[in-house]
Design brief:
By secondary structure, this protein is α/β, with parallel strands linked by helices. It is built from 15 helices and 10 strands. The protein folds into 2 domains: 211 residues, Rossmann fold, CATH 3.40.50; 70 residues, Rossmann fold. Strand 7, helix 9 and strand 8 form a beta-alpha-beta unit. Helix 3 packs across helix 5 and helix 3 packs across helix 8.
């Protein structure tokens, strides 16, 4: 797809990927509603295949390729959930996946890619090294690049999470998603525009990687500082995601690492759900803006649940 997705594109994507994804549950908690001062509806993409919403976009983008393109395989650079999601999509559809990963990527994520049959090409942990290595891999293999977020088919797949939420919960006043590269947020904002136009879109972003917040202020894409425990949100916006976000997102709320930890503790203790730091950011943003959201009906996207338990234990101990 070479244009911004419309309503029909999201409907088509949802039908396309349904056989390969979970329709994740929407969960509520009276205890959390009391703390938040509003009615909160959590869309639990932490319970999605590969433990994150990324399964939606990777599958839709791979399914959207022509038979000839798909036969040559798919490729990307990613150190996280998109790497596993694309490898999974390729395995299901009977093709090859070539994943460029920085040598410093967590071993558990490398094992996940290998487990789905992906072929890993390691590089130095810089964006330039990733992009250069990926170009070499594509030249060698003829595979099609599936970018983690700056790809219209990917963001259309991510949009289906919000479509499902709106099908289950009526009359949401607000919906809040995390923002890193913007693939999820742009998709969520488009789904909201088409399926629940009265709902206001907000985003949560770590204060230590507030490039999206600064981009909204300056009107141009700012670079990420990348100093936060929310390691899934370190990427800057793309030239496809930023215009959509700028047009359809009302406000980006930044939260400190301590606010993320505090929100994550509430989620783990009261919802009994494992949600990663990045996935907890929108709930932290909700708590920070609770006066504005008082008495409202608010949807929150839990983007993922892939955690390093040793690191989480240390964070809780510090918090």
């Amino acid at each position: 797809m070479n244009t911004i997705p419309d309503k029909q594109a999201i409907i088509d994507a949802h039908e396309r990927i349904k056989p390969y994804i979970h329709r994740t549950p929407v969960m509520t908690s009276e205890s959390i509603n009391s703390v938040a001062g509003c009615s909160v509806f959590f869309k639990c993409e932490n319970l999605q295949n590969v433990g994150a919403f990324k399964a939606r976009g990777a599958m839709n983008a791979t399914l959207s390729l022509s038979a000839e393109e798909r036969a040559k395989g798919v490729a990307t650079h990613s150190s996280g959930n998109h790497a596993q999601a694309l490898a999974r999509a390729a395995k299901i559809l009977g093709t090859r996946s070539y994943i460029v990963m920085p040598r410093t990527a967590p071993e558990i994520k490398k094992k996940g890619v290998i487990g789905y049959g992906g072929e890993i090409f390691e590089c130095e942990p810089t964006l330039q090294a990733r992009e250069t290595t990926l170009k070499e891999v594509i030249k060698k293999t003829g595979a099609t690049e599936i970018h983690p977020f700056n790809n219209y088919d990917v963001m259309t797949g991510q949009a289906t999470a919000a479509k499902e939420l709106f099908e289950e919960v009526n009359d949401l006043d607000y919906i809040i998603a995390p923002v890193g590269g913007g693939g999820l947020l742009s998709g969520i904002s488009l789904a909201t525009k088409f399926f629940s136009p009265k709902t206001i879109v907000l985003a949560g972003e770590p204060a230590g990687a507030d490039d999206a917040f600064r981009s909204m202020q300056s009107g141009k894409i700012e670079t990420s500082q990348a100093n936060t425990i929310a390691d899934g949100l370190l990427t800057s916006l793309g030239d496809k995601t930023f215009p959509i976000i700028r047009e359809n997102v009302k406000e980006i709320i930044t939260v400190t690492d301590q606010e993320i930890i505090d929100a994550m503790r509430i989620v783990w203790e009261r919802l009994k759900l494992v949600v990663e730091t990045s996935g907890t950011v929108p709930f932290a943003a909700l708590l920070k803006a609770k006066e504005k959201l008082k008495g409202k009906r608010v949807g929150v996207i839990f983007s993922g649940g892939n955690v390093d338990l040793e690191k989480i234990g240390k964070l809780f101990a510090q918090g």
